[in-house]
Design goal:
It contains six helices and six strands. With 178 residues, the chain is of the alpha+beta class. It has one domain: Ubiquitin Conjugating Enzyme.
């Protein structure tokens, strides 16, 4: 009796086909334009493929500029550099790993990087906050949804993490310059 295991070929084709469809739709456009959510200077999303065929990278950058300061005695480029420090920022990077049984199971998201310069008036740990959102997202479909496309999963995730106004209401408006 000969047993042939086809799972790696199936996995490779499923991931490749669905990713290629999604990436083809992203040609010459941004994530914000693709989802028609409007690209702003405040919020920026990027999606990248990695050298690993089964892991992609999703990046979110939030910047909220506050009062600008202009020193008349300084050149504009120096004023620009000074003002670049007078804003809140949150930079997030996530890996999206496609499981062995994809598309029977949804991609697994993982927070891989967080950077911010926000000081809070309450006890709020942004790393724990975003890890909890990722965990909730990973478990939201009971890890089974054959009909969930990559773009629908990403849009669903964007909706879940887009609480920057909520986070900022708990800041003490002190900029930490590192």
């Amino acid at each position: 009796m000969i047993i042939i295991i086809m799972e790696p070929i199936f996995r490779s084709r499923a991931v490749t086909n669905r990713r290629n469809i999604f990436l083809k739709n992203l040609i010459n456009t941004t994530i914000s334009d693709f989802f028609d959510i409007g690209q702003t200077n405040t919020l920026n999303f990027t999606y990248e493929t990695s050298s690993n065929d089964f892991i992609d990278i999703f990046t979110v950058k939030y910047i909220n500029e506050h009062t600008k300061i202009f020193f008349q005695s300084l050149p504009d480029d120096i004023n620009y550099v000074i003002n670049s420090y007078l804003c809140f920022h949150i930079d997030l990077k996530f890996n999206i790993a496609y499981p062995l049984n994809y598309p029977m199971r949804l991609p697994i998201w993982n927070l891989t990087h967080i950077d911010h310069n926000i000081h809070f008036t309450i006890d709020l740990n942004l790393q724990k906050y975003y890890r909890k959102i990722v965990d909730n997202h990973n478990n939201s479909y009971n890890n089974s949804s054959q009909t969930q496309t990559i773009d629908a999963d990403i849009l669903n995730f964007i909706v879940k993490i887009n609480h920057f106004d909520y986070i900022e209401q708990y800041t003490d408006k002190t900029i930490i310059i590192v």
